[in-house]
Design goal:
By secondary structure, this protein is an alpha/beta fold. The protein contains ten helices and nine strands. The model has no long low-confidence stretch (mean pLDDT 95). This is Enoyl-CoA hydratase/isomerase family protein.
Length: 264
């Protein structure tokens, strides 16, 4: 059974973590698949949005510390090496997800733990089921943080909530996560795939170049000045004016119909 499934439809790339017997714990094959998929989506113009979801009622229980592959392959499949190098491989992958020039969504059902929480937080949007639970588990294993969560948690829930999650390693339920700003929306578990796919299709049907620049502007807002932000807006707006999608947006407005963007 493949550890990761990939489905493509109308510009939406759906990545399914597919080890339900292990609550979709991420092994070397999982990281290798994610490496390949991110490389493809980054450069393929037909891939216009990315959705991460887990099989069998869970997003992912995090890194598969119990094995799940060749013991000589290491955690990420690059051979036995120091944890420092392993974590750099993982960090690079999650950074590539965070910096992907196309919009991304995580659909979280069941558990999202440790590095899997980092994957979810690296996405632009998170839709959670009403039974979703989140855990920054590292302290319970005597570990420091990884998965980019030392950056993403305080940016998304604030420093004090981030410290609460990281210091105690307690479970955070779906409604609490919504109240803290950890997720965008909470829906009934049976509706999660439908809602997440609908969001993904809306993004895949959007003006891809404009969305890419909007994403970058917002991601960089925390480290830029207001003066830099308005200058960056001027430059990205100039680029947007050169796209066919912008012309379609104006044409559809004048013709009083919904736009049909092509991503170019």
């Amino acid at each position: 059974m493949d550890s990761t499934l990939v489905e493509r439809s109308d510009g939406l790339v759906t990545v399914v973590f597919n080890r339900p017997e292990r609550k979709n714990a991420l092994n070397a094959a999982s990281w290798a698949a994610l490496d390949r998929i991110l490389a493809e989506v980054a450069v393929n113009p037909a891939d216009r949005a990315l959705l991460l979801i887990g099989a069998g009622g869970n997003f992912s229980s995090g890194a598969d510390l119990a094995g799940g592959g060749d013991e000589n392959s290491g955690l990420t499949g690059h051979g036995r090496q120091s944890i420092l190098n392993e974590m750099r491989v993982v960090g690079d992958l999650i950074n590539r997800l965070h910096r992907l020039p196309k919009p991304t969504i995580a659909a979280v059902d069941g558990v999202a733990v440790g590095v899997a929480l980092g994957l979810a937080l690296a996405c632009d949007l998170i839709v959670a089921s009403d039974r979703a639970r989140f855990n920054e588990v590292f302290v319970r294993r005597g570990l420091s943080l990884d998965g980019g969560t030392s950056w993403s948690l305080p940016h998304q829930v604030g420093l004090r909530r981030a410290k609460q999650m990281a210091f105690f390693g307690d479970w955070v339920g779906a409604q609490e996560a919504l109240a803290w700003g950890l997720v965008n929306e909470v829906v009934p578990a049976e509706d999660l795939p439908k809602v997440a796919t609908a969001w993904g299709r809306r993004l895949a049907g959007g003006p891809t170049t404009a969305l890419s620049m909007i994403k970058r502007l917002l991601d960089e807002s925390g480290s830029s000045t207001f003066e830099q932000a308005v200058e960056d807006e001027a430059r990205t707006q100039h680029i947007a004016y050169t796209t066919k999608d912008m012309a379609e947006g104006i044409r559809s407005f004048l013709e009083r119909r919904d736009p049909e963007f092509t991503g170019i």
